[in-house]
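We modelled the chain as a single entity of 311 amino acids. Its sequence is:
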Amino acid sequence: MLGGRVPPFLEREGEDYPFVHIRDMLAEADITFGNLEAPFALGGEETKKEYIFYVAPRYAPALTRAGFDILNLANNHIMDLGPPGLNSTQKVLTELGLAFCGAGGNYDEAVKPAFLDVHGLRVAFVGFSMILPRNFWATDSTAGTAYPWVSRLKEVIRKARGESDVVIVSFHWGEELVEIPKEYQREMAHRAVDYGAHLILGHHPHVPQGLEFYRGALIAYSLGNFVFGSYSENVTVGLLLSLTLGQGGVLGGRVIPISVYNREVRFQPRLLIGAERQKALGKIRSLSLELNRGKHILDPEGTLLINSYKN
């Protein structure tokens, strides 16, 4: 979320400023995915809500230079400037060659998967938001984000599964600053896996939540913040998730903790090292233990214990 407190830094230091310490890691991945939490637009139909975020389109090219390939638009800020803001965002991303999912001019457009082909593997991305305001959710005739209505979720995921090798579903959900997934998050994640998803990527709570293996799929309930334009004292650690994908889904990977405490890093996420890194990994291991019936799915260094969940 490059709005809020971030633009003065972009103006003074340059648009690549937020990614300086993490850019190489993002760029080396075959596919780098993120949640875009504010529209790239300067005008539109400003929504009446407490927090309104938007970002000047001239800052968008920094995302491509940082290595991003695809962005989720299904969240509770992408419609802050209404349909014009969404249209502007999609135009900007298209011109940059960035794929996107999760929002559109109507519901069918919003749930349309984005496909990326890498090394002979076809990967489908679908995005959903379950966060209010409700008028941000697309309908058959109005623009907005994709809500995972049960009547459509199965159809959308199964169709994506039939057209790809790996299906990744992104959910904007949960409660802010709460480390434990809500019951509805777990129910929706399990339902998505039952319908054919191989990987679930969650966001919105601003803090990390645990990871779960379910029926061979990996569920990351919340990766926390990355670049986010606030100085919250309650948000200090985020997660990068580095995965190896293949036929059948996730083949391996690791959790990488980062500092997102902006009073120190000033909107430049940095890799945690030493004792701080071990503390963060210990926390996510503990949170994940509770979601996996007392079984560790991460080793002390953050590596996924793939063989553990397959046995």
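As a brief sanity check on the tokenised model: The radius of gyration is 18 Å. The longest strand covers residues 249-259.
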